[in-house]
Amino acid sequence: MKFSHKAYLKPLAHATKYPTGPVNGVFLAETNSTNLVVDAVPLFHFWGTLTPMLEVAMTQIDLHCKANGLRIIGYYEASERLEDVALSLVGQKIASQIHHVNPEAFAVVIKNQKINSDDVAFMPYQFKEGQWRVSKDAFSDKNADFSFENSSSPTVVAKALRGGLWEKLADFDNHLENIKEDWLTNKAVV
Amino acid sequence: MVNAAKVLQDLRASAERKPDVVVRLGKPLIDSGAVLKLDTDAWLVYEQVAIAALDIGDDGLSLKCIYALETKFPGSARVRRLKGMQLEAIGKLAEAGEVYKAILEEDETNVLASKRQVMLLRAMGLPSEAISALVKYLDVNYTDFEGWLQLADLYLDELMYAQAAFCMEEVLMLQPQNHIFHLKYAEILYTQDNFQLALKQFCRVVELCRDHVRGLYGIKMCASRLLKAARSKDEAATSQEDLEAMDLLATERLIALYGAPGAAAESSKVAATKWIETQ
């Protein structure tokens, strides 16, 4: 999987905006491409273990995808605890549902400690042998499974976040409080 | 000219967590000494800035505030709990625990120390212990709705929905007019597949807060599930006609809200409208 700039920026902006709680969202790819992750849609920053709005969001993202030649290709989350990089139980459930429809689907846990650095802040997981397992050495020469479309993404994104770009990010929780919030495309951030 | 003191006061009243704002406004007041002109409020500001400084990692500022408070109120349990929080912030969890334990040994009813102890256990990655400690606290302080809310969250972290629902019931007995609490209860019930009761709670949300979008979505989700399911033999269950009427009402309101000019971004409007049509 190659991550576009947008697909790296939005999850980190989401985590930066809500440092005191967990956040999650999904990744999108074009319908006909196999491995370019073009975008990310942020979902929630509270009540992440509750289902009704998750169902509404996933259906609306599906409709958005169909209207724009996209499909859901993965899931991301960030833990509220700084050092935690394990894929949460809820995360495993959501990622598994995505994987059920799309066997190439993957999950990413954000490495909170790496957000304000030039290092890669994504910890990817793949579904192998019935379990979600960390993809070792991702984003390095040893593991071609995960990479960046543009190798400067980590540096550029870290700088943008320091400049306060994260304030403009809107997730589905924000949208439900104020439907003006552009959660599906987040044009103000890109 | 922003009246820093007023903004800080408003934030204390609303209990919003905006540490960057608090530090940005409070630090100059404290550094210049102007804070002392606020008389009794000065000490509330010191406490507020101390906590905000911990949130954004400005240990120096936090210690400065705590020192000022210690000087003014020597031996105060309230100040000592701040010291405990500072120790937590720099990762000295065991020492923080000792501070809270000492306060509780002097006064086992000290609410602030009890609460910090619960959250310390959670920070240490001991959720069951945190839950036990909070349950013990609530046995005595059963009218503390914030405590019940926190317990609900601890249960939700462990996916213990039934227990979380029970906690929300306690919260609602104490705070029946708060639509957000009804909303949380409704979503927990939905997650437990209790669509009948969830629907009633979502309706209450919209009753208390007109055109609440999240509540309206909830009504549609429940109504749609109930209409698709087998007809319930329960006499108390909502009738098909009522379900359809509620669904229609929620649909109309959502269409009106999204349809208003400039109400939503194009992509959101398209997706939402299609969702409403196909639900």
TrEMBL record, chain A:
Origin superkingdom: Eukaryota
GO cellular component: EMC complex
Source organism per UniProt: Linnemannia gamsii
UniProt similarity note: Belongs to the EMC8/EMC9 family.
Name of the molecule in the record: ER membrane protein complex subunit 8
Transmembrane parts of this sequence: none
PANTHER family tied to this protein: ER MEMBRANE PROTEIN COMPLEX, ER MEMBRANE PROTEIN COMPLEX SUBUNIT 8_9 HOMOLOG
UniProt domain MPN: residue ranges: 1-131
TrEMBL record, chain B:
Quaternary structure (record): Component of the ER membrane protein complex (EMC).
Biological role stated in the UniProt entry: Part of the endoplasmic reticulum membrane protein complex (EMC) that enables the energy-independent insertion into endoplasmic reticulum membranes of newly synthesized membrane proteins.
Location(s), subcellular: Endoplasmic reticulum membrane
UniProt keyword Endoplasmic reticulum, yes or no: yes
Keywords: Endoplasmic reticulum, Membrane, Repeat, TPR repeat
Membrane protein topology class: Peripheral membrane protein
Descriptive protein name: ER membrane protein complex subunit 2
Organism superkingdom: Eukaryota
Native source species: Linnemannia gamsii
Homology family: Belongs to the EMC2 family.
